[in-house]
Amino acid sequence: MDGRRARHDPDADLLIMTTTPTTAEPAKSGLSPRQRRRVSLAIQYAVFVLVLIAVILLADWPKIFENFLNGKVAAGMFPTLFTVALKNTLIFTVAGYVIGFALGLVLALMRLSSVVPYRVVALVYIEIFRGLPALIIFLLLGFGLPIAFPGFKLPGDVYGTVALALGLVAAAYMAESFRAGIQAVPKGQMEAARSLGMKPGRAMLSIILPQAIRIVIPPLTNELILLFKDSSLVFTLGVTAATTELTKFGSDTTIDQANSTPLIVAGATYLLITIPLGFVVRRLEARQGRKR
Amino acid sequence: MTHAVEIRELHKYFGDNEVLKGIDFTVELGQVVCVIGPSGSGKSTLLRCVNVLETPTKGRVFVNGVELTHPDADIDAARRHVGMVFQQFNLFPHLTALQNVMIAQQRVLNRSKKEAEIVARENLAKVGVGDKCDEYPGKLSGGQQQRVAIARALAMNPDLMLFDEPTSALDPELVGDVLAVMRKLAEEGMTMLVVTHEMGFAREVADRVVFMDGGVIVEEGTPTEVIGDPKQERTRSFLRRVLHPEG
Fold first, then answer.
1. A246-257 and A261-291 helices cross at what angle (nearest 10)?
2. What is the spatial distance between Cα B54 and Cα B43, in angstroms, rounded to a whole number?
3. Scanning every residue of chain B, which has its alpha carbon at the shortest distance from the alpha carbon of A291?
4. Which of A245, A278, B5, B88 could join A88 via S-S bond, C-beta 3.0 to 4.6 A?
């Protein structure tokens, strides 16, 4: 270390002090605590480098590139990857989100209602739909209903089924977010609105909800990410070439080409959407944190 | 003649705790009545019973001759004529100052946007924040926020204004601006019921002062009587503590 700098560096002073023989606690190993920390750190780096070298040397790179990162197979997925698969995934997600948002808001208001049956219905709904795997809901809507009522079809066919299934599940989660948001609005807001002569419904609509929704934008955006991924469950319903989405398209092409690259490409396409959205959520949360 | 506010045998319980123990009093049209007393004496609760933000447990409340404690009373309609100013301002943070003053005009009185905006700008100018129309409450000082809140209530053309410790949450140097606005309102003949710790304001502006303690009215009269020459020992000891806190 540069001697001149050490004089101004309290850390370095400490180092000099602790390495002098007069140190208060003579370590058994002959190493000062600071030296021990350094050795430990060096070992951790060494292990990391060793594992890295082992992976690089032992992995069958040509085979990995051939099977997972095959440029030719990947190129064959375009433009269908975007024009059909991603497009359908986005349609499923957005449609499900719209249904979930509307139903979730209604459920939240029911949950906070002074009418007991409303509260009970909302509570039971939320508990059931948060407790069940989304897959069960997909299967019930896709196969359960048509078996029970032959000829029954939801409007929009697969689109309708997926949107409804995603919406029903999302509504339960979003209802809890909305409820938390509404309860986070200070009581004085409702009092001020009522003191101006607003009826309870009007006060909720004009004063409370606009504030509550602002509060829950981060969790609601998170829900959008979850839905985006859950839309892959549509594969259980047997989609056609026209209604295929990212996961199904990836897995079909993988089987078709006897090559795993399409799954990697499909996965990367999800990340293309989820990583920026996740970034947005963190930004929104940070901004809210600052406001408080 | 009907009273602006008439309260008969008012009781209010929170659970088992009796906060108001039989209050009788009236406010006449054009009067300014200040309610003073130690914290926990029930004065804020009394004020909140006047526009039924708290539902009285027992007793009757009349505003301009309309009984608000009647089961069939249209409380929302009655509140339109009663402005309220809160200790914590309670401005709507998602709306600008102008929108804060406009929204109830539009949604409750069904005024057109244009009319509501004219009335809002008039009232914001009147309370001295005419240059803050497009600011959000978060950007305003406490004194400015409270004046916007006063403008918001005034825009509804109230017959009666309720003030619930309007300066208690303010930095000392901002209190004067708000009191000046209230003084101006009083001079214009507004009927006002004010819960306050500002003895100077009560002494100079109030027509009547009511001293409350322990859920009852201990003493009431003109400011000269109640603040200048209190008859009751409880009033005297309260005033001593408020006016000479150093003892």
1. 160
2. 12
3. B138
4. A245
Give the span between the Cα atoms of A185 and A213, in whole angstroms.
Answer: 10
Angle A134-A140-A144 from CA coordinates, rounded to 5°: 165
Query: Could you give the 3-state DSSP secondary structure of residue A114?
Result: coil
Q: Do B53 and A211 touch (CB under 8 A)?
A: no
A204 touches chain B (CB under 8 A): no
Distance CA B234, CA B211 (A): 9
Average per-residue pLDDT for chain A = 86
CB-based contact B120:B98 (threshold 8 Å): yes
Residue A71: predicted pLDDT: 84
B243: left (phi over 0), alpha (psi -120 to 50) or beta: alpha
Angle between helices A217-230 and A261-291 (to 10 degrees): 170
| Alpha carbon A105 to chain centroid, angstroms | 20
Rg over alpha carbons for chain B, rounded to the nearest Å, is 18
Q: Which long-range contacts (CB under 8 A, 24 or more apart) does A185-189 make?
A: A185/A211, A185/A212, A185/A215, A186/B88, A186/B90, A188/B86, A188/B88, A188/B90, A189/B90, A189/B92
Separation between Cα atoms, residue A126 and residue A115, nearest integer Å: 17
Inter-chain touch B153–A188, beta carbons under 8 Å: no
Per-residue pLDDT tens over the stretch A56-83: 999 888 888 888 888 888 888 888 888 8
- Tell me which chain B residues have a C-beta less than 8 angstroms from the C-beta of A186: 88, 90
Count of CB atoms situated within 10 Å of the CB of B189 = 11
**Nearest in space to B27 (alpha carbons), one of B198, B150, B153, B190:** B190
Q: What is the pLDDT of residues A168-203, one digit of tens each?
A: 999 999 999 999 999 999 999 999 999 999 999 999
Give me the phi and psi of A258, to 5 degrees please: 50, 45
Residue A229: Cβ within 10 Å count: 15
- Of B49, B100, B97, B188, the C-alpha closest to A196 is B100
Which two three-digit tokens encode residue A176?
């809890």
Pick from A196, A199, A202: which is nearest to B156 by CB?
Answer: A196
Cα B186 to Cα A165, B32, B116, distances in angstroms? 62, 7, 24
With beta carbons less than 8 A apart as the criterion, state whether A103 and A167 touch: yes
- B48 min Cα distance to partner chain A (Å): 10
**Which whole number is the average pLDDT over A28-47?**
89
User: What are the tokens at B173?
Assistant: 């140097």
Angle at A96 between CA A91 and CA A100, to 5 degrees: 155
- The SS3 of residue B199 is helix
A287 Cβ under 8 Å from any chain B Cβ: no
Q: Of how many residues is chain B composed?
A: 247
What is the enclosing helix (H) or strand (E) of B61? strand B58-63
Rg (CA), chain A: 29
Q: What share of chain B has pLDDT > 90, as a percent?
A: 96
Measured between CB atoms, which of A192, A206, A214 is closest to B90?
A: A192
